[in-house]
TrEMBL record:
Lineage: superkingdom: Bacteria
Family per similarity comment: Belongs to the enoyl-CoA hydratase/isomerase family.
InterPro entries, A to Z: HotDog_dom_sf, MaoC-like_dom, MCH/BMMD
Name of the protein: Acyl dehydratase
Stretches assigned to the MaoC-like domain: 17-118
Amino acid sequence: MIGRPSYPSTFYEDYVVGTTREFGGRTITADDIAVHAEQTGDVFPHHMDAEWCATQPFKRRIAHGTLVLSVAVGMTATDVNPEAMTYGYDRIRFIRPVFIDDTISVRAEITARSDHRRHPGRFGLVEEDVRVTNQDGEVVLALVHLYLVNKRSDPARAEQAG
């Protein structure tokens, strides 16, 4: 039997406001847009019809905002932390369009920590400000990623260990 891999734990107490992470270089392709359209059913002409787009202000097909969001979130998911999970996303803003062959990069910064309102001894909330830029350094997407993180000081954890 093959054993389960072990993953390092990062507890709430380990997150430091101001810590940044950067992830670079993912090009959005026409195939990405086609697959996303098929999976979601979003086949609006803004994404799929080059001729129609030529008559519109942007003059070319644009990637779905939800595609860019999904790819960007995936780019930040580089480490498995058994002590944390995504709690949600706030203030998602699609600031500029992303076009076919644009390359996006992501910068994430821990901006806040707080106790969980209903379970302050067990969990903390960590807010990460996420900015997605294109190859020209322009912000195309901004959001706040919320994490629910186990506390090292959780009394239930101490009982299990003791």
